[in-house]
Amino acid sequence: MPDNNPCDGIRGTAKEYCERGQGGPPADVEGGGGLTEGASEHVKGLAENLIDAIKGLLAPGELWAPEEASGMYEPFLWLGQHLAVAIFLCVVVVCALTAWQGTPRLKQMGASTGWTLAAVAGMASVPGAVMLLNKAVSNAFTAAFNSNESTLFGVISHDLEQGTDAGNPLATMLITAALVVALGFAVLVFMVRQLGILAFVWLAPLVLASLARGGDMSAVRAWASRLMGLMFAPFALLLISPFVPLTEGSLVMDAVLLVAADVLMLRMIFHGVPYIGPRVARAARVMVERNTTHPAALAVVRAGVPAFYEEESTPRGPRTVDTPGRSMSRDRGVLLAAYGVKQDKRPGRLTTESAVAKTRREETERAARNVQIVRARQQARTDAGVPPAGARPRATTPRAQGGAAPQGQGGQGGTQPPQPPQPRNP
């Protein structure tokens, strides 16, 4: 009778264990390092993917803005070119009507002609110039943050493989969590930066058309400064580059650097995105404060988005017109000035009815604003658990608080004995 093999009823890898008679896995089994090593490799791969995603979001090689003067940019180009030509024609007409002034008008017409040609040519070249500049910024960002093992992301990749705590699961999870948080802020930076660059590229023809009047560069300088701020905003992370060599070799310290990078990205939105940057950053801070109570997370987000006040423009009220007497006095002054007679200009003031109406309107607006402020304060007190300003706190006695009465009034350690009633005087 043949011997029965006790391992015949077992299939798969367990049968190989049984036949070898050893507790360890067979030599030809894939992943001989066990589940821990396989999980570690997956986490490292996830970290590398997160690093690539963050780099692609902070300084992408492609923009949402058009690369050529076509598509959605074409209507803005048409409007800007026609606006520049219309301004040039107005300048020519004015110079023709005042040609008797001679050289100043000829200079103005020559300047308007040159600046109009430059503006029309510049409108068509803005998309290509922005695209080339973005590629240069993307390459420079990659070289500054992931070119070798001495840069931020290069150090993180190196520490994942050969760091002192590379085999520590807690350190690996910590750096992965820090990368996930940084990825969230990088997505926010990507959205506002791409939308901002797209909006400023579309507005380029309307801004450049202002040069046709005679070369006034104020609007162009303001537009260019805001666009350059959006383009070069990712380089704010260079502030943490001097500290990268200090954290090399430790994943935990790398996570601390990533937290500092999160603060800088919030500051990048707060200061670098024009018009809506402070509100977007404040919305991110409010979202974090509503979803977490951890003091470290709150400190980080408050360092990135400081508390601030907003100032709005004064609401535009009814227009101000001159009374008939003031209008006649102004025209009389113009006529006298034509004859060489100088007339003193008197400052204007509102009439009695207009002053009363203005005062009433301002008082109504002030009262409505005060009501809003009072309601906001009451809501803040309610949220903080503070009693209203008019409420009196309940008086508490030492007996209600469980304490003893003060000594020296009724003996050495007790309460004061009741006093007998005093007789009334007749």
Secondary structure blueprint with pairings:
Elements: H1 13-20, H2 35-58, H3 73-97, H4 103-146, H5 152-162, H6 169-208, H7 218-231, H8 251-272, H9 277-291, H10 295-304, H11 324-338, H12 352-384
Helix pairs in contact: 2-5, 2-6, 3-4, 3-6, 4-6, 6-7, 6-8, 8-9, 8-10, 9-10
Total strand segments? 0
Low-confidence runs of at least 5 consecutive residues: 22-36, 400-414
Largest sheet, strands/sense/barrel: none
Mean pLDDT: 80
Termini gap: 133 Å
Features:
flat, 12 helices, mainly alpha, 426 residues
Fold and architecture overview:
The protein is mainly α and 426 residues long. It has twelve helices and no strands. The radius of gyration is 38 Å and the shape is flat. The model is unreliable at 22-36 and 400-414 (pLDDT under 50).
